[in-house]
Amino acid sequence: AIVAMGPVAVAEVESLALDAPVKDGSRLFAATMILGSVRGRDALASAERVLFDYILVDPSCWSACADALKLAPHDMLPLSLRTLLSDEDPHLRAIGIDVLAYRGLATPEDLEAAIKDAPIVAAAALPYAALATTPGAMTASANARAHDDKDLNRAGWLASALGDPSGTAMALRDQIDDPTHQRHRAHLLALVGDQNDAAKLLEAAKAAPSTALVDAVGWAGAVASIGPLIELVETASDDDIKLSAAFALERITGAGLYFDTEIEPEDVIVDEPPTPDVGEPPELRLKVLTSDPRDLPPEPETETVLLPTTNGAIWRRWYGEHAAEWPLTSRYRRGQPYSPQVVLAELDRGRCTPFERRALGHELVIRTGQVVRSDVHDFVRIQETTLGDWAPAAERGSSTAGNWTLPYRR
Questions:
Q1: pLDDT attached to residue 266
Q2: 294: CB partners within 8 A, 6+ apart
Q3: What pLDDT sits at residue 286?
Q4: Which end of the chain has fewer CB atoms within 10 angstroms, the N or the C?
Q5: Which ranges constitute the DSSP H helices of 132-225?
């Protein structure tokens, strides 16, 4: 719409961003995406000036700019990105390597230098370096796993999982009790681990239930965990843990025991602390204050969200009807013996969040030993193409469905 209004409107984008009272990531993303879609060096230079201004105010904005540059079609982006890659500011270097690697433009030398750079640059580069089998990537990942920087630490574990799943599983077995990183590490152990690791995650979840551990049990997919998960649904005192156990059961069984759950209108927007009761009458709602009392607007329709049931009796009855079909030593995903083809189908058609879809992409790399360039950040048409590209690898890796086999990396 802005481009359609012509050069005068495009020229206003920079000032609208620079003069904004709050320098937030969404505004930086918007300005970068708009200006990165207009041909010519002037438009790209305008986007760079916005970036430099925002980085000075809030360095964490760098990722919003990177997200826009991954999608923007500007033909001069490679030149701009290489300029950022050589900047003295590590946030700008992080943008440079992140976008170059995402677009497949980073050279082995770029990645090798980046994984030895400042923590923010290395964290952006390590997963790409692991996928590209960059020399030194596994050593840098091992060093990152011991680093105090949270983002670098997590990038190190992810890179290790993508590049050396079996070695990472061994290293992760004693690392899932750290509350700071439990969700990330337990989840990765579920992706790279074997049947013994699935049992370890289940025992940890039974001993000290947490949403992180219960979620990981669902990803691990052991049929033997179905009964204990039903017990958690029945007995957990924490509603979040009950719901996590129900989601884990759905991930393993594909039972489809979903129900529409009503949400209060206020909860759809933002949770706010309750107004204390000081004995005064409540404030009238805006529609009452501003509307003719003879013609008040109707009450809003009930908002609902689809959630798996947390009624343990329903789960126990369902499992009683199907237990004979489920070998206790097998691994299942969405009601089918686990295989990369099942993972690909879940990525293609499953009801999944962006986090889950990115994890499924990592799982395909881990369980097929192959790499197909794909990302949930891509435009939909590109994602549809990469799903087709994954199909042959998923088929080759699915000859032993129902187990935790790790292939050799190809």
A1: 54
A2: none
A3: 66
A4: N
A5: 137-145, 150-163, 165-172, 182-192, 195-207, 211-220
- Mean pLDDT estimate for the chain: 91
pTM of the model: 0.87
Q: 157 with 127: CB under 8 angstroms?
A: no
- CA-wise closest residue to 65 among 17, 104, 107: 17
Q: How far apart are alpha carbons 128 and 111 in whole angstroms?
A: 8
The residues, any chain, with a CB within 8 Å of residue 191's CB and separated by 6 or more, are 161, 165, 219, 359, 362, 363, 366
Q: Among candidates 104, 49, 37, which has minimal Cα distance to 76?
A: 37
Q: Would you give the DSSP letter of residue 279?
A: S
pLDDT for residue 82 is more than 80: yes
- For the purposes of burial, counting CB atoms within 10 Å of the CB of 351, is it exposed (0-12), middle (13-18) or buried (19 or more)? exposed
The CA-CA-CA angle for residues 139, 143, 149, to 5°, reads 145
For 264-302, how does the pLDDT look when each residue is reduced to its tens digit (9 = 90+)? 655 555 445 555 555 666 666 666 667 777 777 777 677
63: how many CB neighbours lie within 10 A of its CB? 17
